[in-house]
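Meet our chain:
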Amino acid sequence: MIKKYIRRFYCFTTILLIISSVTIGQNKNIFIMVHFEAGRNTSHSLINEILFDELGYPPDSLRTNNLYFQRVTWLSTVHMIETADTFNIKLTLALQSQMAEYILQDTDKINLFNNWIDNGHEFAMHHHGINHIDWGGYTNRFQGTSYPDDYLWEDKFQNSGLNRGNMQESFNYVQQLANAINDSVVTGCITDTQIDKPDQVIYLTDGGKSPNDLIAKPDTLILPGGTIYFLSHFQIASVSKDENNEIIEDDIINRQMATQSLNYVMDNLGQSDDNEIMGIVFHVFDYYRFSDIYRDLFNFFNQNEVNNKSIKGLMNETSLGIHNNYAKGDIKIYPNPSKGLFTVQGDDLQFIEIVNINGQIINKSLIKDKQFNIDLSKQPKGVYLVKIVTGSGIVTRKIILD
């Protein structure tokens, strides 16, 4: 009898050790980004399918009412966040300007979105350039600067009926929502990056379905607007393409492909080093179609005690070599609040940018000293975003002019 209990104890201990070997060390640097599509390109078969199923509208109705897709996917969005909260999963919510516009129309939706951000989810921006199948209607192309491939997209820009304006007009919707919830947007997934990236976005993600996209070290990119950080992400998608790059219509195949991607993520949990990040992305319409797949992802992370974070939360961690200098005392901005004059102090300061609440850049300066003075005495009172590029990273801070 005693030997029997000893064997049971041994088996139980072994199981605990196995569980520990799985969970310990897997609480790594992980983000999950969710893309909110514009849903305006009527040649996208999946978007058409969703609209037909829910509304019965012909695809061309997107040209006269741009927010049908947002209305259809809103309930899935709410359910997705509630499910994530159940499993203590934090999402980086990358909104196209159409979703920000949709939320801004309803105070209850603004308050709900504010609750999500207060609960640890991140407000980010998503944008597709004119060269994407689901172009949201905004681009900085054809605004005076010529680009070598403009001729490929000129007809789409002028004659498709999709054009809504430049990127400042796009970012204004995002900025208005950020102002409404007292937040700032510094993270994005922006295609046509060299042309369309808003200056306020300093953490940029991109990737696909390659295994190399799942785990990588953050990297820096030099763009016309300055230095930014780049993070890779791996896509779990409910829509797949064949060898001819055509969208596969068979839901069984699409589910199988998404499940394979999910399994790949699960198999590689815990494989990243301390200075690497595992990045995962999916779309709201993916959750709309196969919510159980993404619930399985949330549940798996929860069971394995994965404490995933927002992107800007990860990028402020010293373990990634991207220092939260303010917390360490290396960079100081004082006095804050101020009546107009602020002093920035720190080592290896290189560049500073000041952005007002409307998303407008009111000052850009190169720095060649350990101290820099900001004079906002002629600006309206309120909150401003300060972006500081140093030799060891990018720091963003809020300052208050009172």
Notes: The domain at 27-318 is CATH 3.20.20.370 (TIM Barrel).
